[in-house]
Amino acid sequence: FCGGGMQLGLFLSGNSHVFCALSNKAEYDYFQYHPMEEVREPAGWLRWRRNTPITGRLIGLKTDAKKKAIWMDCGIHAREWIAPAFCQYFVRQILQTYKTDTKMEAMMTNMDFYITPVLNVDGYIFSWTNSSTRLWRKNRSPGPSGDCYGTDLNRNFDANWGTVGVSSDCNSNIYPGRGPISEPEAQAVTYFVGSRKEDFLCFLTIHSYGQLLLIPFGHPDFTASNYDELMKVGEGAAEAIWKVHGKKYRVGTSPAVLYANSGSSRDWARMQDIPLTFTFELRDNGTYGFELPQEEIQPTCEEAYSGALHIITYAHDKTFNGATATAAAAVWTTLCSKLHTFLVPSVFSSFMTDFVLKA
Amino acid sequence: MGLRRAIVLFALMEVTWSLSVTTIGPETVSTDASAHPEPAEENTEQKEAAEEDVMATGELNPNHYPAQRAAKVVQHYLNLRHGSPYKLFGLKEVHSGNAEEVADSGRKYQLEISVHEIISNTKEKCSAEVFFPSGAKQLSPQVQVSSCEEILKLDAKSEEEALYQQYKTNKTVCTEKRLPDSYGHVDPEMTPFWHLSIVASSFIMLKESTENTLYNMAQVANITQLATENDQLKFDCHVLLHDMVSQEIPQWKLLFTWSPAEGVKVLHTEQLPHIHQSEKQAKPN
C-alpha cells in the first residue's frame, strides 16, 4: 500500500480506503498555524470525511491487554491557535518517541491516546475568515434571538452549569448556552468520553494564554477529593515546563489563580471520576496574547509537551507498575516476532485511526 | 527497542458511533455532584479569593489572582509613565503581596514584583502600591512605584530620537494591517508603533482597571499618523483590548501624542460599541 520505511500511521475507512500519513512528513510544518482544511486534508494530517464535524486521532500499540486511555483536546476556544498547534505537535512527538524510548513504548502499550486537535471546528474556521474574526472565542451556534451567535463551549458542560463565571447575555463571550450540553460539540465529548469514562486516567484540555495549569473545580465551593495529588502533579508539570525554556507556569484551581467558572470540560471530566484533569493555558502572558508569533510555536510546544508528559507518566505509573509494563512489552515482542513470519512484512505496530465525535 | 515490527493487519473499523439519544439533562447533575465534588474545607484563602464582595485581605498568595491583577495595574502604570517605542514593561513575577481595607474608601495592595523591560530583556525587582477606590462611580486605581529606578532609567534615547526625527517631517505612519497580525507577526518597521500603541492603551487599561479585571492589549486594528503638533508626533489609533476576566474584547479609539521629551500624552479616548456585525457578515463554512 504505501511502501517505504517511513510509514507511521495507517487508517482504514469504512470505504476501505487506506491512507498512509507520515507524521513527520516534510510538507507539514508543525511550527506554523494551519487552517482547518489543512488539519483535515486527505494527504495531510487528518483524514477528511464528509459529515465528520470533529475528528481526533487515536494512537496506541496493539495489545490484548485491557487498555487505559488519555484524553487531550485543543481548540475549545477558536482564537487560541497555539492550542491546536500543540495537539498536532504532541501526536508527532509521541509517534517519534516511542520508537526509541522504551518508556513511551510501554505507555502506548498500556494506554490509548485520544487527541482532538480542534474541538470547536466552526469557531476555528470562523477565526480564519478574515482579520476581524481572528479573536472569536465561542462556537457558531445561532443564539436565541436573531442577532447573536455562539456559546462558550467551556461553560456549556454539565458541571455546575450556569452558576459562576457566566453571563446570560448571548452576546457575551462567556455565554454558557441555553442549557447544559446544549451544544453539539459538548454533547459529542460528553457522549464519547462518558461512554468509556472508566478507561480514562487523564483528561487534558489545552487553551491559551496565561501560562497556567488549572485544576478542578471552577466553582469555589467545591474541592476535588484528590486536590493534594492534583496540586503535586501540577507543580511537577510546571517544573518540567520550566526546565525546558525557563517559562513560569502558575498552578492552582481556577477560582484561586484566575477566576471562578462553571461548566468547563475539565470539571465535567473530573466529575466522571477521571482522576487527573488539567487545563493548560499556554504562552504568553499578554504581550502577544492570542496572536502568539509562529516563532514561538516550537518552544511553546516543547515545554507544554514536557508538562503533559509529566502528568501522563504519573497517571501511567500509578496504574501500571513497572513489572506489568515490561511483561506486556515482552509479550508484545514475542507476539510480534511470530507474526512477522506470517504477515506482510512491514514496519510498525502502532495503529492510528481517526475517531469521530459525531453530533 | 525500536525494532521493526510486523504490522498487524486487523480490520479496523471506523470508530464512529451515533449520538441519537442520550440527552444528558439536568437530572444527572445531582448524581455527579453528590458523588464527587466535596464542599470546600476551611480554606480561607480559596473561599475569600472566590467571592468578589469579600476580597482577600492580609498576606496574599502571590500566584493567586488578587495579587496578579493588582500587579498588572502596575505594569500599565509603568508603561504609561515610562514606556516608549523602544521601552516596554511586562510583569515577570509577583513575589509577595498584602492587601488591606482603607476605611470606606477602597483597598490598598502592597506588592513586591519583578518587572521586565521587554526590548532590552532586563529584569528588576520593584515595590509598588495599588489603591482601588470603592464607590458607585468607577474611579481609576492609583499606583505608586518605588525601588525600581534602574529599569526605568534604561536608555533608549538615541533610538527614540532617531524615530522621532524620521517621522516628524519625512515619513508618515499609516496602516490598516493589524498589529500583531493573525499569525503574531509585526513588521520590523511597524514594531515601534506597536509598542507606542501599547503605551497609549495603557492609559485606558490603567483607567479601567478594577480588582475584577485583567487587561492586556490584544491587537492594534489600525494606526494613523496625523500632522505633527507642537513638536509632538500625533497619532490616531484603534485598539482591541482583552479583559481576561470577562473574556471580552473592548475596542477603543485613541488620539495621542508622543515625543522623546514628553513621552505619550493621550488627548482623547472613545470606546467603540461591542461590534456584532462581524457575526452577521462572515458566515460559517
From TrEMBL, chain A:
Keywords: Carboxypeptidase, Hydrolase, Metal-binding, Metalloprotease, Protease, Signal, Zinc
Protein family per UniProt: Belongs to the peptidase M14 family.
One of the record's GO cellular component terms: extracellular space
Enzyme active site: 281
UniProt GO MF annotations: metallocarboxypeptidase activity; zinc ion binding
Gene3D superfamilies, per the entry: Zn peptidases (3.40.630.10)
Stored InterPro entries: CARBOXYPEPT_ZN_1 (IPR057246), Peptidase_M14 (IPR000834)
Needed cofactors: Zn(2+)
Record-linked PROSITE patterns: CARBOXYPEPT_ZN_1 (PS00132), PEPTIDASE_M14 (PS52035)
Peptidase M14 domain location: 1-315
Biological-process GO terms, alphabetical: proteolysis
Annotated transmembrane regions: none
Annotated protein name in UniProt: Carboxypeptidase O
TrEMBL record, chain B:
UniProt-annotated stretches for the region Disordered: 28-50
Domain Cystatin LXN-type: 56-159, 175-280
Alphabetically ordered keywords of this record: Protease inhibitor, Repeat, Signal
Molecular function via GO: metalloendopeptidase inhibitor activity
Organism: Poecilia formosa (Amazon molly)
SUPFAM superfamilies membership: Cystatin/monellin (SSF54403)
Gene3D superfamilies: 3.10.450.10
PANTHER family per UniProt: LATEXIN
Superkingdom as given in the UniProt entry: Eukaryota
Pfam short name (any one): LXN
InterPro entries (alphabetical): CYSTATIN_LXN, Cystatin_sf, Latexin
Protein's name according to its UniProt entry: Latexin
Similarity field: Belongs to the protease inhibitor I47 (latexin) family.
Leader peptide range in chain numbering: 1-18
Keyword rRNA processing appears in the UniProt entry: no
A cellular component term, taken from the record's GO annotations: extracellular space
